[in-house]
Design a protein that fits this description.
The chain is of the alpha/beta class. It has helices spanning 43-53, 110-113, 117-138, 174-194, 218-228, 247-259, 276-287, 311-317, 325-340, and strands at residues 33-38, 58-64, 83-87, 100-103, 141-147, 198-203, 206-207, 232-235, 241-243, 245-246, 266-268, 273-275, 293-296. It has a domain at 22-204 and 245-268: Rossmann fold, CATH 3.40.50.720. The chain has 9 helices and 13 strands. Helix 4 (174-194) links the parallel strand 5 and strand 6 (198-203). Helix 1 (43-53) crosses helix 6 (247-259), helix 3 (117-138) runs parallel beside helix 4 (174-194) and helix 7 (276-287) crosses helix 9. The longest helix has 22 residues, at 117-138. The structure holds nicotinamide-adenine-dinucleotide (NAD) and uridine-5'-diphosphate-glucuronic acid. The site of nicotinamide-adenine-dinucleotide has 28 residues, from helix 1, helix 3 and strand 5. Its cofactor is NAD(+). This is UDP-glucuronate decarboxylase.
Length: 346
């Protein structure tokens, strides 16, 4: 029986997890860890798959509907005997036999999650329900990639995991932030009611190679604009802050959370905090000093400040980010220049 450590968030009596498949004790049992990654063709998911595939004991199954992800992100694994890719929408049930589930499937960029808000909420609620049902049937441990958006426009700064948030339930971002809040609730209800082993990561703004060029998120926008020689569009007022985590640090944090004994929720992010104006100035200085910085209209309910308190991640996972923004941006620039076909001048 797997031990489930409490971290103070796991209220009430917890049932033991369901018995894993009898194959686990079979004579010819193959010791590989079968890992499902939903949303594995996306930005963070594909980097996670790369890291999981480095371990020869892992078999990785990706399911994705390619709404914002792309097969291109995974092409180096096509044909690999430990890798499988399935076109599937998580709002439909899925029958696979796995030991762990990293549940990432959900559009993450505001322009994409607002494009079809009803589908976004279905993905968060029905998709998470389906993955929890799968975890229950096969006795798998499941990790949800939740978000700092569960804190809404936070009135507490920096945000620690005990803060319940300040979220507009009927706004244009609600399909995503309220959707993730329900997904977290479902995770804890399955944990308490059915003994499922759960892990919840609250991810703060993550950036790195493979983000969609027209993704709409701020780091990818600014880098694409700087590489193309276009003005950097700072949405007003520009004093709003974010904290940016490089994707390799994020993947490391997610794997530590999955492998550790704490349910979470645990903030995973880089506490270095920047205004959007500071970010634009840094991108301009590092990538293209000739570009202009302009102010453009913002979207409703944009959080005014965001910075993770990562005390819990440090203490419980022994994790903290290693890559500073000034070191991460040039790594992303290389990838964007290659995909945009714009070489460096020097
Ligand atoms: N990148 C960030 O800054 C950030 C911050 C907080 C939380 N997160 C969370 O991390 C996860 C991954 O984010 P990302 O930045 O890699 O985004 P992404 O858009 O690149 O990846 C999401 C993936 O999920 C797939 N997907 C979407 N809906 C699906 C559905 N119904 N069925 C199957 N697949 C579906 C997409 O096609 C895509 O491949 C998301 O759950 C997101 O909410 C990301
Ligand atoms: O980390 C998180 O929890 C969340 O962060 C982001 O949401 P957001 O912070 O709004 O991301 P961006 O769209 O990159 O916006 C960041 C800031 O940059 C500003 N911005 C964006 C784009 C742009 O061109 N210019 C610009 O100034 C926005 O107004 C906002 O204040 C992600 O897109 C969510 O998926 C994720 O869950």
């Amino acid at each position: 029986m797997a031990k489930e450590a409490s971290n103070g968030n796991s209220h009430g009596t917890t049932k033991p997890p369901p018995t894993p498949s009898p194959l686990r004790n079979a004579k010819f049992f193959q010791a590989n860890m079968r890992i499902l990654v939903t949303g594995g063709a996306g930005f963070i998911g594909s980097h996670l798959v790369d890291r999981l595939m480095e371990n020869e004991k892992n078999e990785v199954i990706v399911v994705d509907n390619y709404f914002t992800g792309s097969k291109d992100n995974l092409k180096k694994w096509f044909g690999h005997p430990r890798f499988e890719l399935i076109r599937h929408d998580v709002t439909e049930t899925l029958l696979v036999e796995v030991d762990q589930i990293y549940h990432l499937a959900c559009p993450a960029s505001p322009i994409f999650y607002k494009y079809n808000p009803v589908k976004t909420i279905k993905t968060n609620v029905i998709g998470t329900l389906n993955m929890l049902g799968l975890a229950k049937r096969v006795g798998a441990r499941i990790l949800l990639t939740s978000t700092s958006e569960v804190y809404g426009d936070p009135l507490v700064h920096p945000q620690d995991e005990s803060y319940w948030g300040n979220v507009n339930p009927i706004g244009v971002r609600s399909c995503y932030d309220e959707g993730k809040r329900v997904a977290e609730t479902l995770m804890f209800d399955y944990h308490r009611q059915h003994g499922i082993e759960i892990r919840i990561a609250r991810i703060f703004n993550t950036y790195g190679p493979r983000m969609n060029i027209d993704d709409g998120r701020v780091v990818s926008n600014f880098i694409a604009q700087a590489v193309r020689g276009e003005p950097l569009t700072v949405q007003a007022p520009g004093t709003q802050t974010r904290s940016f985590c490089y994707v390799s640090d994020m993947v490391d944090g997610l794997i530590r959370l999955m492998e550790g004994e704490n349910t979470g929720p645990i903030n995973i992010g880089n506490p270095g905090e920047f205004t959007m104006l500071e970010l634009a100035e840094t991108v301009k200085e590092l990538i293209n000093p000739d570009v202009e910085i302009i102010s453009v209209e913002n979207t409703p309910d944009d959080p005014r400040q965001r910075k993770p308190d990562i005390t819990k991640a440090k203490e419980l996972l022994g994790w903290e980010p290693k890559i500073k923004l000034r070191d991460g941006l040039p790594l992303m620039e290389d990838d964007f220049r290659m995909r945009l076909g714009v070489p460096r001048n020097n």
